[in-house]
Amino acid sequence: MHIWKHFSTITRHRHKVIGHCFKAGIFWQGLGHDLSKYSPAEFIPGVKNYIDGKSPNEKEREKEGFSRAWLHHQGRNRHHFEYWVDYNPRLNRKEPVQMPVKYLIEMFCDRVAASKIYYGKDYDEVKPYEYFDKGRKRRWMHPETSRQLEELLVMLRDHGEKKTFSYIKNVLRVEARKKKSCWK
User: Which residues of 105-122 are buried (b: 16+ CB within 10 A; e: fewer)?
Assistant: First the structure.
């Protein structure tokens, strides 16, 4: 059992996300980030399936064919694009819905923090984009959400954290608040 290692990993990740959310101007939202990971539905499988340097959800999927912990997590955390799938009555099927900007920003912060935790000393500002690009063909995300996230990841890759977080805080967030419908 890896109780302390799992607790330490998710807590370090969460603290990095909080720091990134502060830089992005959504500090209060960052404080609530990933609290469901401490719930029994996610924490116990995380401990049982702990793998150093990888998500325990991967091991749970290998063993069970799916991850209950991930299903629980994505269904409660709006910063995951999988949360934003709903039934479209016109097309009579489920479809991805565009994420509100405040959750898109948190998703960006989450991806950067996860890359830092999982890559450790091998992290560089290219890694979050490479991870995004690698999953492009199997990802089911609203096209505009995907475009916006990719734009931020490319900015991070090409111009670094300081410029990207400044843009998020002073341009993207401000524009979204003016539109209001994208901020909710």
Answer: bbbbbbbbbbbbbbeeee
Residue 155 CA to residue 11 CA, distance in Å, equals: 27
Quote the pLDDT of residue 176. 86
**Of 41, 64, 49, 71, residue with least CA distance to 3:** 49
End-to-end Cα separation, the chain, in angstroms: 40
Q: What is the pLDDT of residues 121-135, one digit of tens each?
A: 999 999 999 999 999
Q: Can you tell me the mean pLDDT for 159-179?
A: 93
Distance, CA of 116 to chain centre: 13
> Does 177 score more than 90 pLDDT?
no
Nearest alpha-carbon partner for 21 in 84, 98, 112, 130: 112
